[in-house]
Recover the amino acids of this structure.
């Protein structure tokens, strides 16, 4: 795994950090591959319950390294899946929750990837920009669909057409990020929430994510789908542990469940 990406796993949380600060964490192909590998392997490891994706204090990522990008532009020609697509597909298809920790620059893919995270937290120093139109390029990785759907068309146009820089508060107001914290406490706040998620029933967390990612359907169909799953989960060992813990007035222990 690349030393330009650090990966640490503890207490059920796998933290993946871009580690190229001298280049503002501009992303290379090997960095995408390393981050993808960390997510893909974590999906199969019982000890991993939650992913956190971040950078260093004051710096998330400046986006693609343009020299590296131009040496092997993605989606051109045939062959193996480009590393950036491998990473984004790992992120998009992760069944376990993913939390983004954004301090400082979040340029290009540093902003679009947030649409594929479950929770995103930023600092007051965060700066979000999608410079695709400035580079004579189209939006990427379904951002032309997800931005208007989640942020509204006007806000999406501000990002994808004008390329306006948003700070953390603007991103929070629009719904791009979940909350904003001081830079000095951002990592601690993210860690706190990641640990809270890791302590919950892994089956329930995964099912909530799966249901929220299920395509739109009539309300009656969704209610029926949820009801069927709800009834099935009433028979699960995780539900039994939750009820037993409630009766015994203790915190449930889901550590033995994967």
């Amino acid at each position: 795994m690349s030393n330009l990406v650090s990966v640490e796993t503890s207490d059920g949380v796998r933290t993946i950090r871009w580690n190229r600060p001298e280049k503002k964490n501009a992303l290379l192909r090997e960095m995408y591959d390393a981050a993808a590998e960390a997510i893909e392997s974590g999906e199969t490891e019982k000890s991993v319950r939650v992913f956190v994706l971040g950078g260093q204090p004051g710096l998330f990522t400046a986006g693609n390294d343009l020299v590296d990008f131009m040496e092997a532009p993605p989606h051109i020609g045939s062959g193996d899946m480009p590393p950036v697509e491998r990473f984004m597909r790992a992120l998009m298809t992760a069944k376990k929750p993913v939390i983004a920790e954004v301090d400082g620059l979040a340029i290009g893919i540093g902003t679009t990837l947030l649409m594929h995270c479950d929770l995103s937290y930023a600092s007051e120093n965060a700066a979000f920009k999608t410079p695709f139109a400035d580079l004579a390029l189209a939006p990427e990785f379904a951002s032309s669909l997800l931005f208007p759907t989640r942020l509204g068309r006007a806000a999406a146009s501000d990002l994808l057409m004008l390329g306006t820089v948003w700070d953390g508060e603007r991103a929070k107001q629009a719904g791009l990020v979940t909350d904003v914290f001081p830079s000095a406490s951002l990592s601690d706040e993210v860690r706190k929430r990641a640990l809270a998620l890791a302590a919950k029933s892994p089956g329930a967390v995964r099912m909530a994510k799966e249901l929220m990612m299920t395509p739109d359907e009539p309300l009656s169909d969704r209610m029926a789908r949820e009801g069927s799953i709800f009834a099935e989960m009433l028979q699960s060992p995780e539900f039994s542990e939750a009820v037993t813990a409630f009766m015994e007035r203790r915190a449930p222990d889901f550590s033995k469940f994967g």
